[in-house]
């Protein structure tokens, strides 16, 4: 027997279930719209670190002081704490690249035996014979991560009829530390004093709403902004950029602290520069001061290099720089030259910078002739060699000169052999004799392999620094083939530089059968 009094509710229930099923079906996404839904809504942005301007400043400083073709590498900067996973090696490479964009000061050698695919490809295209071993390697690690070192919370509230107000604020401070060191690749010895140890205090306020950082360096607080979502990782990037500036600045002995907007009067960095000065030899001090005086116009590069000329130029520089004009090379002179070149990188890099007004009256006249060069070998100026023999060329300018030497082999290929990564300074004082390649057997070798051929070394001597004014095709790295037809084309490019006095000295080698 059916009770009809309950039939109507059942029908209503069925109709309601049908309506709900239709609504649910209508709300389901269509498969063809999945691609549009999967698209990111937030646009990509460039990663901007807090030391980008400092990295560009270092590039200008390296360019001004002629630092180039220094080969470095690193096996990586691991996280010794095991708490932060970040691409530290790539961060380091990016920092080095930004510091060498214009100056070519550093070249990073990406040697990683674990990259078997890259190794196989390099062998297939024949890159292995051209592999250049780096001069230095950088090692380091994230050595410390102390989370929640400080934690504070404050709240306040007020309650009155029809109104309740409450304020809550919390703050967490964590410490991250990074250590970097530089070693010589050949000896595997860590260079004393060429290191960086920096820490950043990461301050996170509220519920992840904002984050900030503070780096303490030599009594100066460097405030940095951090990414809201990845505060620790951005803090690591800032530490790597700062530490890279510090260790490479120490390695090249440039006043890196000025790129961090730290005054030269800071006692910590003044003490560091004092250490550099004390470890320099007398010859190295003379070369540094002479090069700085030439760049600023106080000393003509074509002068005879007599001590009286140098002393007079030093006195004028000291007088214009509010130093005691005693004509001697001392630390105050060295430190002032470091500071002045760092503040005026464009002036320091310019090869045509006018002489200071005070020096215009008393400066000796510029030499009327290009500085002469003498080239020779242990077998005399007209040497004969056999296949398998190694060439060594002695270069001696008769006056102060900026020297560039090129080698053309039996096939006509031309490459620059001086200055090179082992002898980076092109300035040679009058009477100075150097050997190319440098003696010691730990640099590179020029070995003859084709009998019956003639091979040539050509050296260009200039009365001023001309390296920055050469065409781009002559600015390739040392020992790399140049896109030129021969030494005559190289010589013609030097002679086209306006205002420069150039001399061209050549030495031809006969390779016997």
Based on the model shown, name its key terms.
alpha+beta, 513 residues, six-stranded mixed sheet, seven-stranded mixed sheet, Immunoglobulin-like, globular
Structure description:
The structure is a single chain. By secondary structure, the protein is α+β, with helices and mostly antiparallel strands. The chain folds into 3 domains: 52-272, Rossmann fold, CATH 3.40.50; 280-359, no CATH class; 373-512, Sandwich (Immunoglobulin-like). It is built from 12 helices and 18 strands. It has helices at 7-27, 34-38, 52-64, 88-99, 116-124, 231-252, 267-279, 282-296, 307-320, 331-343, 345-349, 487-495, and strands at 70-74, 106-108, 136-160, 163-184, 190-205, 210-217, 220-225, 373-376, 384-386, 390-391, 393-397, 401-408, 414-418, 427-428, 434-436, 446-447, 454-462, 502-512. The strands form 4 sheets. A 7-stranded mixed beta sheet has the order 2-1-3-4-5-6-7, with helices on one face. Strand 1 (70-74), helix 4 and strand 2 form a beta-alpha-beta unit. Helix 3 packs across helix 4 and helix 8 crosses helix 10 (331-343). The longest helix has 22 residues, at 231-252. The chain is globular and about 115 Å long. It starts with 6 loop residues before the first helix and ends with a strand.
